[in-house]
Amino acid sequence: MQAKDSSALSTAHALPSYLNPDHLGPWGIYLQQVDRVTPYLGSLARWVETLKRPKRILVVDVPIEMDDGRIAHFEGYRVQHNLSRGPGKGGVRFHQDVTLSEVMALSAWMSIKNAAVNVPYGGAKGGIRVDPRQLSKAELERLTRRYTSEIGLLIGPTKDIPAPDVNTNGQVMAWMMDTYSMNTGATATGVVTGKPVDLGGSLGRVEATGRGVFTVGVEAAKLTGLNVQGARVAVQGFGNVGGTAGKLFADAGAKVVAVQDHTGTIRNANGLDVAALLEHVGNTGGVGGFAGAEAMDAADFWGVDCDILIPAALEGQITKDNAGQIKAKLVIEGANGPTTPEADDILNEKGVLVLPDVIANAGGVTVSYFEWVQDFSSFFWTEDEINARLVRIMQEAFAGVWAVAQEHKVTLRTATFIVACKRILHAREARGLYP
């Protein structure tokens, strides 16, 4: 009998299959990003496996009674990636394509994002595999409340704080907060963020992610000599993130020349009327059919002649197949994980500056942190105070990442991971292993 290779055995059993770097999907992309940053971690590299293994993974069955009396079952997730720097923090998404790999990666990117802007949170994420457009409001409420009860053993104001994400909003957060509060016997406004203002939500939260995208974009433009005034901007996704960022760039004198979302792809070389487009989206649910633009093929969006490209939809949008078409000088990632590592390399070789999600879209979690702090103190700030604090934190975080990128001659994504991973692993090392 041929002896088995012991090194192969140890490698095969080192990681569960779903943590394997060869596993396709968002988690595999995240693991590649960690591998790229490991050589820059110095003595902290001995702890790097901490970053490759989520602390907790909870998969739950979410059964609800539908309006017609049927019992339907949905699969839900809550993943806590790392809690070394504080309680878990991350959104909950309702989408028909949600997978465990996706939620794991999103939770890990939250760890990086929170550490990058230096807010005292770890990373977490949740989701339910469901198309919420197929549910009535009553069914959506029952789904949300049942899911909240199922993950109730993990969440809490000092344990893990969910927030809105794809297809979830302030109403969903209100249901989650109420369910948790009823189950624990006391009102706990700080268990979620992104709530309605009347329930302890923060002013400025809805626009926060888009405002952060705009803020770091302006900082990068200054450092690279790109004049925002007159710059041509293309945006994928025109909801809270892309719509807010597009409006702020337009207000600063830029021209939004193309927009794509799930309803269509439109362009106007002279610049879209962003205010009118936002009104159209509010009335119809998407950009498709907007009178002030011409329709174009979805695949042609990536080749639009523009200076700034903002992918603000879902992950995995910029790939090795379309990265070569991109003409923008600056890509600002409003979405989580929109660019694959192969595409990153192509853009870097083309001289395109990519502002990675883990710094560019951190405005949302920053204002979520403000909301959490306000809930604990029961003292609320004005919107001007919130926006000023947000801009300052984003500017300081970006300046730190830029300095590391220049020091090590690396991309901004790798620089952000260097900053964040060192903070996480310093905390892990200082806390030690117990027991």
UniProtKB/TrEMBL annotation:
The keyword Oxidoreductase applies. Residues 202-432 form the Glutamate/phenylalanine/leucine/valine/L-tryptophan dehydrogenase C-terminal domain. It comes from Comamonas brasiliensis. GO terms for molecular function: glutamate dehydrogenase [NAD(P)+] activity. It comes from the Bacteria. Keywords: Oxidoreductase. The lineage of its organism: Bacteria, Pseudomonadati, Pseudomonadota, Betaproteobacteria, Burkholderiales. The keyword Oxidoreductase applies. This is Glutamate dehydrogenase. CDD domains: NAD_bind_1_Glu_DH (cd01076). Belongs to the Glu/Leu/Phe/Val dehydrogenases family.
